[in-house]
Amino acid sequence: MEAKTLLKEHIAKTVSLTEEEFDYFFSHFKSLSFKKGQTIISAGDKVDCEYFVISGCLKAFYINDEIKMYILQFAMPTWWTSDYNALYNQTPAAINVDCITDAEVLCLSNSDREKLCAEFHQVEHFFRWRTNKGYIASQKRLLSFMNNNVKIRYEELLALYPQLYNLVPKHLIAAYLGVSRETLSRLYNS
Amino acid sequence: MEAKTLLKEHIAKTVSLTEEEFDYFFSHFKSLSFKKGQTIISAGDKVDCEYFVISGCLKAFYINDEIKMYILQFAMPTWWTSDYNALYNQTPAAINVDCITDAEVLCLSNSDREKLCAEFHQVEHFFRWRTNKGYIASQKRLLSFMNNNVKIRYEELLALYPQLYNLVPKHLIAAYLGVSRETLSRLYNS
DNA sequence: TTGGTTACGTGATGTAGATCACATTCTTAT
DNA sequence: ATAAGAATGTGATCTACATCACGTAACCAA
């Protein structure tokens, strides 16, 4: 689907904008294409934008002591991603975002988002709801982390995002679950 | 500090409301007092409100198989708490909220919040920022969970909220860290 | 085609933290 | 004041998962 249509339908699920309002809104986004493996945000970078995924799959991840990787989020079409801490607080990125597959994204700068939120009450409403959903999902994941062992978390993940199983290598799924690739391998071969 | 003043100063950190606007905003809150140990939300309940803490300390927690407790959040003065998943999606509460100490809270219904957000762009802005902060904090905690062992998480918690050390029993701190009370005990006696 | 890199499987062993059990102290209610 | 229940400390043992080590298969790029 075309980028503009995808974003339009995504927004329309939460708020109603007129044709002109949406066109104006959309004019603040920049379209970017990336190849598999390319980096969108590197730890240490200044972060100016958040990204809306049109096609492909990204990962947002943290690297500990240059050794271990923990995946905070897989970003699929219609998902938003960035280092929001860095973006909102104007601090250097602590996490990285890169492309698991070739990807097309729309990029919105922090200042444009704030401008659009100030100009259109409806846009502010949209972003409030989007963040709400993210917050709730994050709380759920935290709880699952505390409450469930790896096997259950693995099954939850596949139930929620079945497409991941074929799309992303298993060691990345392990990095999302916070478990070693060996343990994950033993888990589903039994 | 008086409830109204506390809320007013809290809101003023993010947005500017006129005297009349704030009075109108405030008129939607109900003041409630609880004794230590009293329950505010029980798992299974319908959840209608979110709560702004004026004094005392609450905990929001999940109970697994009627045995293990995991604390999602300690709520101190000027913090907001509820079961947001239940509140926004109108599902029965999955988590509980109760009082670690005697507490005074202001209660705002979901419908009143949405009404106020629709009526005042500034109020919508305030709630967007509040949720943003919560989301960022939740992501940080998740990352710390994956990345750090109990000792480091314990030190992080005390660095962030030194007042907790004297205020809440250690087994609750263990429940926040997702660790057994025995392990926590051994940890800080060494 | 070949050589190098990445993904994946699997055994052996190590370890952080859980669980169980029981003792001690501190709170709270009557 | 006293009894009962909460909170805490500490040893012994168990277990889920990490780590290390090595092997094979798949996927590339020259």
From TrEMBL, chains A, B:
InterPro entries: cNMP-bd_dom, cNMP-bd_dom_sf, RmlC-like_jellyroll. Residues 16-116 form the Cyclic nucleotide-binding domain. This is Crp/Fnr family transcriptional regulator. It comes from the Bacteria. It comes from Flavobacterium panici. Pfam families: cNMP_binding (PF00027).
